[in-house]
Predict the 3D structure of the following.
Amino acid sequence: MEALPTVSVVIPTFNRASLLCEALDSVYAQTFTDYEVIVVDDGSTDGTPQMIERYNGRLRYIWQENRGAGEARNRGIAEARGEWIAFLDSDDMWHAEKLARCMEYAEREPETAIVFHPMVEIDGAGNRVRGRSKRARAGRIVDDLFGHCFVHTPTVVVRRRVLEEVGGFDGSLTVCEDYQLWLRIATRFPFHMVSEPLAFRRLHQKRLSKSAMYRNMAQRAEMLERFHDGLGGREALRPRRAVRRLARVFRAAGKANLRAKRYADAYTLFRRSLDYMPLDLRTRAYLWYTGLRRNSVMDRSSTVLKTAEEVSA
């Protein structure tokens, strides 16, 4: 019988054929070799299947209709045969020692359920971008992680049984599905950390997390609120700190919508921020200003509508 791999590497992709090559090359450069590679193509139309052919059967390629990164990763998890699951996004890369260092740690600390490490952000030319990384912490991290996300998908190696216990990625989320999963895991398991940065995140304009920031930031706020209210957060988090975080994240989402001139949405988000910190003067000022802008736009819209009705009459 064929021996099962220790690690299953799950890579979702969507229309990133050229970048996917570099991601895969970084996997095949690993000094730890007891792994399988599963690429889940989430409906690409850019020639990804033809590009995959160059790897000549070294990976399992699965194509599905476009359902989002979370569902693509879930499909990869369902197909995985390894005891451990390692995630890599198709526009990121690994250091050659990534799997070796993570598995050495897991072997040394057999109670480990999930291990991660810092990552380095690079530009399109491969140059390091400094000043963007958040300080990572290990152990029982749910409170710190709720405050800001410092666990990133290409850094995580997790036991498959942990994913089976807590459930996989929430496919209804178009962003922050990974952040939510790490929070859910953190309510039950400590996170272990290798101190070296062993992954590279590519900063480019087509990243999903950077498209429509007004929408993404609102979804992040709503995700954190749902985690707090119904997914174990209320019991696991320090109440005052959680309330401040929710107030800040809704205010930040409101500001992003205000910059996008989405005044009605911004007004709603500022109101939700005030639900958590009613006396915050900055948020009250934003709410007042956004209300004026919203009313002005509504007045102009009413005038345009009235004029159109008069013309049609």
Observations:
- The chain has a mean pLDDT of 91.
- The two ends are 81 Å apart (CA to CA).
